[in-house]
Structures are given as C-alpha cells and as structure tokens.
TrEMBL record:
The chain crosses the membrane at residues 9-26, 152-173, 185-211, 241-264, 299-326, 346-372. Signal peptide: none annotated. It holds the Pfam family BPD_transp_1. This is ABC transporter permease subunit. InterPro entries: MetI-like, MetI-like_sf. Belongs to the binding-protein-dependent transport system permease family.
Length: 383
C-alpha cells in the first residue's frame, strides 16, 4: 500500500502542473485582462484607481486641470507601463553600471515584457514554495484572502455533507428493506422531486417563506453570525450560528440528499440479493444481524468512502449561488469575483490550492476504501 500511495503522490506533481498550464494558457488567449478591467472601471469612475493603491495625480492620468480623470482616453502609457510591471507582465531593465533604484522614470531604465513561458515558470516556482502572491485589486495575499473566506465554505460544505449522510443512509436502508412498498413509492416521489428542484430555486423558496419575503420573518439573510455575537454567551453563540446557517445549509442539502439516498438503496438491494445473505438467513440469524452485521459493510463501501469527494464537491463547486442569495462571502463568491475582475493572482492562486487539495482528497478516498474493507488492495490491482 505504501508504494501505491507514493506513486499517487508523485502523480500529483505532473497532474497539477498540467492543470495550471492549461488554465494559464487559456487565460492568456481570452480577450480582456486586469489592465482592460482597470480601463473599464475608469470609464465609469475616476476614483476607481484608488482600489489599486494609486491616485490620478501620481499616475499621470490627469490633464493638468486638477479635476481628475474620467477614463475617456484610457490609461496613459506611463501608468500602463507601471501596472504591467506591478502585475508581473513586464520588468524593468537598467543600463549596465546603473546603481540607483530601478524605475521607469529614470532614462537609464526601460520596460521589457516577460514572455508567457517565463511568467508561468515564475508563478509555478512561487507556488512550489506556497507563495500564492497578492491580489491585484485588494492589496492582500491570496493565502490570507482564502483563509478569510474559508469559514463560510466550510460551514456550507461540512454541514450539508454530514446532514446528507445522516438522513440518506437510514432512509436508503429503509427503502431497500421496504422495496416496492407504499413507503418506498412515496419517498421515491419526494426524492425525485427534490433532485429535480434546482438548489437556487429552493433557496429562493426558503427565503420567501421563512426570511421575510412574503410570509414569516424567522431566519436572517446575512452572514454566519449576528453583529453582537462576541457579546453573547457560549450557548447563545451556538444558537445564533445555527440560526444563521439553517436556510443556506438546507438549500445546499437538497440535491446531495436525494442522490445519496438512491445510491444507498441500490447498494443495499444489490447486496441483499447475493448468496451470502441467503446463507446467513438460512443459518437462523436475525434480520437486523444480517443487515448490519453482514450487508452494511459491503453496501456502505462506496457510500462512506465517497465522503471526502462529496464534501470537496460541495465545498468548492456548488456554493456560489447559495452564497449570493443569502449574502455569504465565501470561496464561491471569491472565485467568481476574481474571474470577473480578471484578478489573475487570486484566480491561479486559488486554482493551485484547490487543485492540490482535490488531488490529495482523491488519495484519501482510496485510503477510506481500504480502511472500510481491508480486502481491497490497490497495490496488487495496479501491478
């Protein structure tokens, strides 16, 4: 097993490299970039440049009248050159023997554009040292930005996944035991309806019904905690936290709950019909002993071992719309805004971190199979 894990860990490096290379290449051929994004902002507001730490006078964008810049003429060449250096698209080269601080304002220095392959190499070298860079527009490191948004996504992902398992496994087992009964029929109808309802539509329904839309004002619509959370007692803090996450977690739960229930039912049905179950019953074992002593471990293998992957999918992939509806500032919104703003530092930094986590979770999923059923040997299967 150790050799198999080592091979999988070594495969993480080329796989992650390929993911980053493809996305880096695609991003560089797609029209628009951070500089064009700044130009678009300036076209609507002369103060938007403050978001990147400059000013109209310092950047050379004014016309000398002191009235600011409206963006009608785009970025000045001098300021554009400064941004290209700041964002890592270019570097400053100075004449041989130059001893001062490299600056585009010095006649002995000039700008040189950095080739595509070299920029990618610099980025990957920094990522190998877990230096994810700094956001272009927010003046905060990508690592700190991810940590800041992490609690929201962990809340949605972890609670949704745990509740899905706590509901789906007992329900799926019950449906398998009562296969074809009235209970199985009407619960299947509910599950199919739940699976067919988009998560965002269910979230809006919950908001209309229970968050002051048209009926009851029971749950809040913003954040994970109340403004006075720090002053609350420990019990009130727990209650306040659960009160805030009730609706978004419920909305996030609906699709995964339906899928897991049907998966559990089908797994149990497959195992119940096998010969060893008939033999166990023939020996006089009770039905509960047959189900939970023999069938459960085999049937639950694929369900329980898939927990890390399911959590990762909910954690990274399906929380954007829920975050937008319930005003939760998590990783979903972070990635969306980075793509819209062309904040390449955040885009690639989070892609690297999430890609690495995803590949490691894949290995953990394989280990879960072995822990649940020691008869599985990936090393022999690979050889």
């Amino acid at each position: 097993m150790g050799a198999y894990i080592l091979r999988r860990l070594l495969l993480v490096i080329p796989t992650l490299f390929g993911i980053m290379l493809i996305n880096f290449a695609l991003t560089n051929v797609v029209p628009g970039g951070p500089l064009e994004q700044i130009e678009a902002r300036l076209a609507g507001s002369g103060d938007s440049i403050a978001a990147i730490g400059g000013s109209t006078s310092d950047a050379g964008l004014g016309d000398g009248s002191g009235d600011g810049y409206t963006g009608a003429r785009g970025l000045s060449p001098e300021f554009r050159a400064q941004l290209e250096v700041q964002f890592g698209f270019a570097r400053i080269l100075c004449a041989e023997g130059f001893t001062g601080t490299p600056s585009l304002k010095n006649e002995a220095c000039e700008k040189e554009m950095i080739p595509f392959w070299e920029r990618f190499g610099i980025m990957m070298w920094n990522y190998a040292q877990f230096d994810l860079g700094e956001s272009y527009f927010r003046k905060i490191s990508v690592f700190d930005l991810v940590l800041e948004k992490m609690p929201v996504s962990i809340t949605l992902g972890l609670w949704s996944t745990l509740l899905a398992y706590l509901i789906s496994i007992p329900l799926g087992i019950r449906k398998a035991v009562k296969d074809g009964s009235r209970f199985d029929t009407w619960t299947s109808g509910v599950i199919i309806a739940a699976y067919a309802i988009p998560g965002f539509l269910f979230a809006i329904l919950l908001m209309v019904l229970f968050a002051g839309g048209s009926y009851w004002q029971i749950f809040p619509l913003r954040g994970l905690t109340s403004e006075n959370w720090e002053s609350l007692s420990w019990w009130s803090k727990i209650t306040d936290y659960l009160w805030h996450i009730a609706l978004p977690v419920t909305a996030q739960l609906i699709a995964s709950f339906a899928t897991l229930t049907l998966l559990t039912k089908n797994s149990f049905l497959d195992e119940i019909r096998k010969q060893y179950v008939m033999t166990a019953r023939a020996k006089g074992l009770s039905e509960s002993r047959v189900l939970y002593g023999h069938v459960f471990r085999n049937a639950m293998l694929i369900v329980i071992a898939g927990f890390p992957a399911l959590f990762l999918g909910v954690f990274f992939g399906s929380s954007l719309i829920i975050e937008m509806i319930f005003t939760l500032d998590g990783l979903g919104l972070l990635g969306y805004r980075a793509a819209i703003e062309r904040d390449y530092a955040v885009m690639f930094g989070t892609l690297f971190a999430f890609g690495l986590i995803g590949l490691v979770v894949g290995i953990i999923s394989d280990l879960m199979y072995v822990l649940i059923d020691p008869r599985i040997d990936f090393e022999k299967r690979a050889s």
